[in-house]
Specification:
This protein has 268 residues and is α/β, with parallel strands linked by helices. It is built from 13 helices and six strands. The chain has a six-stranded mixed sheet, sandwiched between helices.
């Protein structure tokens, strides 16, 4: 019996035999360009006269839209009426894949009533393990830097205190820079964070916070120049990790610290 005249039972038996042999997909004798097939299949539909579909039919064929992570972040952040509530909301946010690989959620450290709020980039290994921002070598250098102008994260006095957070509360793999989509998801939480903490001045420590708050990168060009972020005076500064790799840049960092000290005096 030729293949053109094979009956139903024989065809089914042949198919079952192939399945038992391990075949899991049909393959033709010649390769098929499925991209070309998709294009050709789309042409008649495009050329055909449009027909008005009923609302029921339209809803049946329309693919359901997925959740908008940024819109959900905005809604969750807006509902938070305290820093504690904001931390709970951000920790519960499920659309950022960084959360899946991080050990700990890293929200903030220091005195939330401080006049100065430092915004860093993202937790590193030590921060991920401890659940606090800036606790590794870069964090130790940050503490020494700001202690030189009389500011400390451990101070109970708002005048001499620091409040510290990051754009990202979860550690990116291999300490890579967060990408634009990750930053955009966290931006509503960061904006609300600044509103609730209400500092006098913000320090943008590195490229990622500048990208989030200013929409700009190039920290070596931005540093030392006062700007505005989230309605607050903001000073971009090089990240302490950069200073550890480039000790000669500490002179410029010292100049930025003096700028910050002068601004605080001016705002008294």
């Amino acid at each position: 019996m030729s293949a053109d005249h094979i009956d139903h039972e024989a065809a089914l038996a042949a198919l079952m035999w192939l399945v038992e042999l391990g075949a899991d997909e049909p393959i033709a004798e010649a390769p098929v360009n499925r991209y070309a097939l998709a294009t050709e299949a789309a042409k008649p539909a495009t050329a055909a006269a449009p027909r008005e579909a009923s609302p029921a039919a339209a809803s049946a064929v329309r693919a359901p839209a997925g959740p908008d992570p940024v819109a959900e972040a905005e809604a969750m952040a807006a509902r938070a009426q305290s820093l504690e509530a904001l931390a709970e909301a951000q920790a519960a946010f499920e659309h950022c894949d960084l959360k899946k690989g991080a050990r700990n959620f890293v929200f903030s450290d220091g005195n939330h009533k401080a006049r100065v709020m430092i915004i860093g980039e993202a937790p590193g290994r030590e921060e991920d393990l401890e659940g606090r921002p800036f606790v590794g070598r870069a964090g130790q250098l940050l503490d020494r830097m700001f202690a030189a102008i009389g500011l400390s994260r451990g101070s109970p006095d708002a005048e001499s205190a620091l409040y510290i957070t990051n754009v990202m509360p979860w550690r990116p793999p291999q300490n890579r820079e967060p990408d634009a989509s990750e930053i955009s998801m966290m931006l509503p939480f960061l904006r609300r964070h600044v509103e609730l903490a209400d500092p006098d001045v913000i320090v943008l420590m590195g490229n990622t916070p500048c990208a989030a708050a200013l929409g700009k990168r190039g920290i070596l060009r931005l540093r030392g120049n006062w700007t505005e972020a989230f309605g607050k005076p903001a000073l971009p500064m090089t990240h302490p990790a950069y200073l550890l790799r480039n000790p000669a840049a500490k002179r410029e960092a010292w100049s930025d610290l003096l700028e910050l000290k002068a601004k605080l005096k001016e705002l008294e």
